[in-house]
Specification:
Layout: E1 4-15, E2 18-29, E3 33-37, H1 44-51, E4 59-64, E5 67-68, H2 76-81, E6 83-86, H3 98-108, H4 114-127, H5 143-155, E7 161-165, H6 173-188, E8 192-196, H7 200-206, E9 209-214, E10 217-222, H8 224-229, H9 234-243
Parallel strand pairs: 3-8, 3-9, 6-7, 7-8
Antiparallel strand pairs: 1-2, 1-4, 4-5, 9-10
Bound molecules: adenosine-5'-diphosphate and magnesium ion.
Domain ABC transporter: 6-240
InterPro entries: AAA+_ATPase, ABC_ATPase_HisP-typ, ABC_transporter-like_ATP-bd, ABC_transporter-like_CS, MetN_ABC_transporter-like, P-loop_NTPase
Protein name: Ectoine/hydroxyectoine ABC transporter, ATP-binding protein EhuA, ehuA
Length: 244
């Protein structure tokens, strides 16, 4: 058995004649926290979306937890249950309460009965610092609170890996810290994570590895201190000069 959670080899993704992933190799070990950085349009979101088949790869192989997700025999719904995803826009169901949002998937997919799902939802809300919001409606929450509910909702499926696509980019600056704290706690607890973010402080503090992408390629990767203090590639240097 391999201890790789994610094993992507030579992944290519075309939209028509536009090749946005040009042969990506991307590995994530069990319990590893990988921060993915790069200019807008470099293919970061497309890579994340390929990992749970929100996008169909054009070619290449994607193995998650030993299961080849491009193999038609692989049950993609089952595979997805183990992959939590948090987006820039939280996509909460506005007609459901916070508690109902978190309970929905585990109950619908038969992972838990209502009582179990409620107990889990309450525990998760405590973890994300929103213990008093079980009955609240999403519209009454701030952006940062909504995003923490979205994280709790993803965790309710008890995933093996969490994918974050710019989870703090749509938030007012004063909300960013609380969301990053929740993510730091998850990392400390050993969650395997892939995080696309422009929060370089988070990357320095939490990432085991930083991967820099540009124009559909992985250009450079390494320990955060190596990438931030001693980048080797000119494109990495140019990007970091702009964002730091
Ligand atoms: P990033 O997340 O790094 O900003 P994306 O993965 O969102 O980059 O996009 C990479 C490229 O793919 C961009 O040029 C974008 O316009 C293109 N792209 C992304 N999604 C689609 C789509 N559904 N259809 C066509 N082109 C797309
Ligand atoms: Mg993106």
């Amino acid at each position: 058995m391999t201890d790789l959670k994610v094993d992507v080899t030579n992944l290519k993704k075309n939209y028509g004649s536009n090749q946005v992933l040009k042969g990506i190799d991307f590995k994530v070990a069990n319990n590893e926290v990988v921060v993915l950085i790069g200019p807008s349009g470099s293919g970061k979101s497309t890579l994340l979306r390929c990992l749970n088949k929100l996008e169909e790869p054009t070619s290449g192989s994607i193995v998650i937890d030993g299961h080849d997700i491009s193999d038609p025999k692989t049950n993609i719904d089952k595979a997805r249950e183990n992959i939590g995803m948090v987006f820039q826009h939280f996509n909460l169901f506005n007609n459901l309460s916070v508690g109902e949002n978190i309970m929905l998937a585990p109950v619908e997919l038969g992972k838990a009965n209502k009582d179990e799902a409620m107990t889990t939802a309450k525990q998760l809300l405590e973890t994300v610092g929103l213990a008093d919001k079980f009955d609240a409606m999403p519209a009454s929450l701030s952006g940062g609170q909504k995003q923490r509910v979205a994280i709790a909702r993803a965790l309710a499926m008890n995933p093996d890996i969490m994918l974050f696509d710019e989870p703090t980019s749509a938030l007012d600056p004063e909300m960013v810290g609380d969301v990053l704290e929740v993510m730091k706690d998850l990392a400390k607890d050993g969650m395997t994570m892939v995080v696309v973010t422009h929060e370089m402080g988070f990357a320095k503090e939490v990432a085991d590895r930083v991967v820099f992408m540009a124009e559909g390629h992985v250009v450079e990767e390494g320990r955060p201190e190596a990438i931030f203090e001693d980048p080797q590639n000119e494109r990495t240097k140019a990007f970091l000069e702009k964002v730091i």
